[in-house]
Task: structure prediction
Amino acid sequence: MAGKTSIKVDLKKLLNQGDMSQNQALESGDLVYIPLEKALNVGESKIYVGGEVTDPGIFDYQPGLTALNACIMAGGFTKFAAPNRTRVIRQQGDKQIVIKINLNDVKKGKIADIKLQPGDRIQVPETWL
Result:
């Protein structure tokens, strides 16, 4: 086992920023080890979309994902949806934060969308009518 060396590579820099200095050539017999991070915890690497969307469910979190994008990933709104009363439920430590957003106004460009965080839950309620 002589000749073992370890090379640490920042995959985030390589994949997200295109930093080719992090791109190491592999040879036969090389071993690649990618440790799990907190962000890779299944519960913390997903977002949840429920309520009046066509296909409610659990989706992979992606950096830059917004509330409206998540609803589109869930098949869009049903005919009984009230996107103007959408809520993003976010856990921060011991606290649960509820962020209300009018996704109709987001669609019209009147207000900015909310960038999601891993573990966020989006709830689209049913219309009152």
Observations:
- The first helix runs from residue 11 to 17.
